[in-house]
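Sequence in, structure out. Go.
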Amino acid sequence: MSDVEKVDPREIQTLQVYLNEYAQQIEILTEQLSMIEQQRIEAAAAIETLRAIQENEDATVLLPVGGGALLRVKVLDTGHAIVNIGADVSVERSTEDAANYLEGRITELEALGKKVAGSLEQLQARATEISRRLEAAQRAAQQAQAGQGGS
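Output:
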């Protein structure tokens, strides 16, 4: 009896389940990576805005009020900003401290992004290996069926 005749249909099913699970995990990590990048971009834009406001005592900014509408407003206190530090907690800090806090946050986000990207790479490698094994098992099963049908 050759290896071709020993293909277990349960193995094919198991490999397919693993492949589906890896695909779901890959999708989740990809979304997380996208959210991390979006947060990093927003923090960088906030730093740029804080520094620009700090340099201009007569600062005017656009304030989004929803529905795509913006108001042009004057910043009353260019020396301070309110920063969300997590868990829906916000604190008032000097504009420079707020910018420094956001820079630290960017550093954390970049480290987290690298970690998630590494996990994503590992999952993709595993999924590729499972996919190869699944394809080989399916080919073997097809060859076994063709061999039995031709006898």
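Check: The chain has two helices and four strands. Residues 43 and 104 are 10 Å apart (CA to CA).
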